[in-house]
Amino acid sequence: MHDTEPGNDGSQPVAYSYVLAVFATFTYFALVVCAFGFISLLTNTDVVSQPDAGPLVGPAATASAVLTVLLALLQGARGYEASVVRAREALIGDPVRVPLGRAITTGVVAFFAYILIGSFLYGETVGQLFSGLLFAADAILQLYAVAVGLLAVLIYLAFALILAAGGSHPARPLWPWEK
Protein backbone atom coordinates (compact mmCIF):
# COMPACT_ATOMS: atom_id res chain seq x y z
CA MET A 1 0.00 0.00 0.00
CA HIS A 2 1.48 3.32 -1.07
CA ASP A 3 0.37 6.72 0.04
CA THR A 4 0.09 9.00 -2.92
CA GLU A 5 -0.44 12.69 -3.37
CA PRO A 6 -4.01 13.90 -3.68
CA GLY A 7 -4.88 14.16 -7.33
CA ASN A 8 -2.01 11.91 -8.37
CA ASP A 9 -2.70 8.95 -10.62
CA GLY A 10 -1.07 6.57 -8.13
CA SER A 11 2.15 5.98 -10.04
CA GLN A 12 4.37 8.15 -7.83
CA PRO A 13 4.92 7.82 -4.10
CA VAL A 14 4.67 11.07 -2.19
CA ALA A 15 8.30 11.25 -1.19
CA TYR A 16 10.05 9.94 -4.31
CA SER A 17 12.74 12.62 -4.27
CA TYR A 18 13.31 12.18 -0.53
CA VAL A 19 13.71 8.44 -0.84
CA LEU A 20 16.07 9.00 -3.75
CA ALA A 21 18.08 11.39 -1.55
CA VAL A 22 18.46 8.73 1.14
CA PHE A 23 19.52 6.08 -1.39
CA ALA A 24 21.97 8.53 -2.95
CA THR A 25 23.44 9.17 0.50
CA PHE A 26 23.96 5.45 1.08
CA THR A 27 25.55 5.24 -2.35
CA TYR A 28 27.83 8.15 -1.45
CA PHE A 29 28.91 6.41 1.76
CA ALA A 30 29.63 3.19 -0.12
CA LEU A 31 31.64 5.04 -2.77
CA VAL A 32 33.65 6.89 -0.12
CA VAL A 33 34.51 3.64 1.64
CA CYS A 34 35.44 2.07 -1.71
CA ALA A 35 37.55 5.07 -2.70
CA PHE A 36 39.32 5.06 0.66
CA GLY A 37 40.12 1.38 0.19
CA PHE A 38 41.51 1.83 -3.30
CA ILE A 39 43.49 4.94 -2.39
CA SER A 40 44.93 3.19 0.64
CA LEU A 41 45.81 0.13 -1.41
CA LEU A 42 47.36 2.02 -4.30
CA THR A 43 49.29 4.58 -2.26
CA ASN A 44 50.15 2.28 0.66
CA THR A 45 48.97 4.89 3.16
CA ASP A 46 46.46 5.00 5.99
CA VAL A 47 43.31 7.09 5.80
CA VAL A 48 44.37 8.83 9.01
CA SER A 49 48.15 8.97 8.94
CA GLN A 50 48.63 9.98 12.58
CA PRO A 51 49.09 6.85 14.71
CA ASP A 52 47.86 8.55 17.89
CA ALA A 53 44.54 9.63 16.35
CA GLY A 54 42.51 6.80 17.78
CA PRO A 55 39.89 4.68 16.08
CA LEU A 56 37.10 7.25 15.85
CA VAL A 57 38.66 10.27 14.11
CA GLY A 58 38.43 8.86 10.58
CA PRO A 59 34.90 7.44 10.87
CA ALA A 60 33.61 10.61 12.55
CA ALA A 61 35.14 12.80 9.85
CA THR A 62 33.59 10.58 7.18
CA ALA A 63 30.24 10.64 8.98
CA SER A 64 30.31 14.44 8.96
CA ALA A 65 30.81 14.44 5.19
CA VAL A 66 28.00 11.90 4.73
CA LEU A 67 25.69 13.98 6.92
CA THR A 68 26.59 17.07 4.88
CA VAL A 69 25.67 15.28 1.65
CA LEU A 70 22.43 13.96 3.14
CA LEU A 71 21.36 17.43 4.22
CA ALA A 72 22.25 18.90 0.83
CA LEU A 73 20.33 16.17 -1.00
CA LEU A 74 17.28 16.59 1.23
CA GLN A 75 17.36 20.33 0.59
CA GLY A 76 17.64 19.61 -3.14
CA ALA A 77 14.70 17.22 -2.91
CA ARG A 78 12.62 19.84 -1.13
CA GLY A 79 13.48 22.38 -3.81
CA TYR A 80 12.61 19.91 -6.54
CA GLU A 81 9.24 19.10 -4.98
CA ALA A 82 8.47 22.82 -4.67
CA SER A 83 9.42 23.43 -8.31
CA VAL A 84 7.19 20.54 -9.41
CA VAL A 85 4.25 22.11 -7.58
CA ARG A 86 4.99 25.52 -9.15
CA ALA A 87 5.29 23.94 -12.60
CA ARG A 88 1.98 22.11 -12.21
CA GLU A 89 0.24 25.27 -11.09
CA ALA A 90 1.67 27.22 -14.02
CA LEU A 91 0.97 24.34 -16.44
CA ILE A 92 4.50 24.44 -17.83
CA GLY A 93 5.37 20.78 -17.45
CA ASP A 94 8.18 19.21 -15.50
CA PRO A 95 10.95 21.50 -14.30
CA VAL A 96 14.27 20.19 -15.54
CA ARG A 97 17.24 21.82 -13.84
CA VAL A 98 20.58 20.39 -12.89
CA PRO A 99 22.08 22.73 -10.28
CA LEU A 100 25.81 22.53 -10.96
CA GLY A 101 26.57 25.28 -8.46
CA ARG A 102 24.82 23.43 -5.65
CA ALA A 103 26.66 20.25 -6.55
CA ILE A 104 30.02 21.99 -6.35
CA THR A 105 29.03 23.74 -3.13
CA THR A 106 28.02 20.38 -1.65
CA GLY A 107 31.41 18.93 -2.57
CA VAL A 108 33.32 21.86 -1.08
CA VAL A 109 31.28 21.77 2.14
CA ALA A 110 31.71 17.98 2.46
CA PHE A 111 35.46 18.40 1.88
CA PHE A 112 35.76 21.01 4.62
CA ALA A 113 33.43 19.15 7.00
CA TYR A 114 35.64 16.08 6.66
CA ILE A 115 38.79 18.11 7.38
CA LEU A 116 37.38 20.30 10.16
CA ILE A 117 35.69 17.54 12.12
CA GLY A 118 38.73 15.31 11.73
CA SER A 119 41.11 18.04 12.88
CA PHE A 120 38.87 19.04 15.79
CA LEU A 121 38.57 15.45 17.01
CA TYR A 122 42.28 14.83 16.55
CA GLY A 123 43.08 17.97 18.51
CA GLU A 124 40.73 16.84 21.28
CA THR A 125 42.21 13.33 21.29
CA VAL A 126 45.78 14.57 21.54
CA GLY A 127 44.85 17.49 23.78
CA GLN A 128 46.54 20.20 21.72
CA LEU A 129 44.85 22.66 19.38
CA PHE A 130 47.99 23.09 17.29
CA SER A 131 48.07 19.34 16.59
CA GLY A 132 44.56 19.65 15.19
CA LEU A 133 45.75 22.38 12.84
CA LEU A 134 48.63 20.19 11.68
CA PHE A 135 46.15 17.36 11.11
CA ALA A 136 44.03 19.69 8.97
CA ALA A 137 47.07 20.80 6.96
CA ASP A 138 48.01 17.17 6.35
CA ALA A 139 44.44 16.12 5.50
CA ILE A 140 44.01 18.86 2.89
CA LEU A 141 46.94 17.44 0.94
CA GLN A 142 45.70 13.84 1.05
CA LEU A 143 43.69 12.19 -1.72
CA TYR A 144 41.14 10.98 0.84
CA ALA A 145 39.71 14.44 1.43
CA VAL A 146 39.72 15.18 -2.29
CA ALA A 147 37.80 11.94 -2.90
CA VAL A 148 35.22 12.96 -0.30
CA GLY A 149 34.60 16.25 -2.11
CA LEU A 150 34.62 14.91 -5.66
CA LEU A 151 32.30 12.04 -4.84
CA ALA A 152 29.90 14.48 -3.17
CA VAL A 153 29.78 16.52 -6.39
CA LEU A 154 29.21 13.40 -8.50
CA ILE A 155 26.46 12.07 -6.24
CA TYR A 156 24.65 15.40 -6.20
CA LEU A 157 24.82 15.62 -9.98
CA ALA A 158 23.60 12.03 -10.37
CA PHE A 159 20.75 12.75 -7.95
CA ALA A 160 19.72 15.87 -9.89
CA LEU A 161 19.97 14.06 -13.24
CA ILE A 162 17.83 11.17 -12.01
CA LEU A 163 15.19 13.58 -10.75
CA ALA A 164 15.29 15.50 -14.03
CA ALA A 165 15.07 12.33 -16.10
CA GLY A 166 12.19 10.95 -14.05
CA GLY A 167 10.21 14.13 -14.26
CA SER A 168 7.30 14.44 -11.91
CA HIS A 169 6.16 10.90 -12.74
CA PRO A 170 9.05 8.45 -12.55
CA ALA A 171 8.07 5.15 -14.08
CA ARG A 172 7.88 2.17 -11.82
CA PRO A 173 8.54 -1.32 -13.13
CA LEU A 174 5.41 -3.19 -14.10
CA TRP A 175 4.70 -6.86 -13.69
CA PRO A 176 3.75 -8.67 -16.91
CA TRP A 177 0.06 -8.84 -15.90
CA GLU A 178 -0.01 -5.06 -15.28
CA LYS A 179 0.93 -4.19 -18.88
Describe the protein.
With 179 residues, the protein is mostly helical. It has one domain (16-168). The chain is built from five helices and no strands. The chain has helices at 16-43, 57-90, 100-126, 129-140, 143-166. Helix 1 (16-43) packs antiparallel against helix 2 (57-90), helix 2 (57-90) packs antiparallel against helix 3 and helix 3 (100-126) packs antiparallel against helix 5. The longest helix is centred in the middle third of the chain and has 34 residues, at 57-90. It is elongated. The two termini are 19 Å apart. 31% of the residues are buried. Mean pLDDT is 83; it is low at 1-14.
Based on the model shown, name its key terms.
single chain, 179 residues, mainly alpha, 70% helix, 0% strand, elongated, transmembrane helix, transmembrane, membrane, DUF6121
Tell me the major beta sheet: none
Low-confidence stretches: 1-14
Helix content range of the residues, please?
55-70%
Order of helices and strands: HHHHH
Integer-rounded radius of gyration: 20 Å
Average residue pLDDT? 83
* Amino-to-carboxy terminus distance: 19 Å
Spatial shape: elongated
- How many structurally independent domains? 1
- Class from secondary-structure proportions: mainly alpha
- Give the total of beta strands: 0
Instruction: Give the number of helices.
Output: 5
Q: Report the β-strand fraction as a percent range.
A: under 5%
Keywords: Membrane, Transmembrane, Transmembrane helix
Transmembrane segments: 15-41, 53-74, 103-122, 143-165
InterPro entries: DUF6121
Pfam family, one: DUF6121
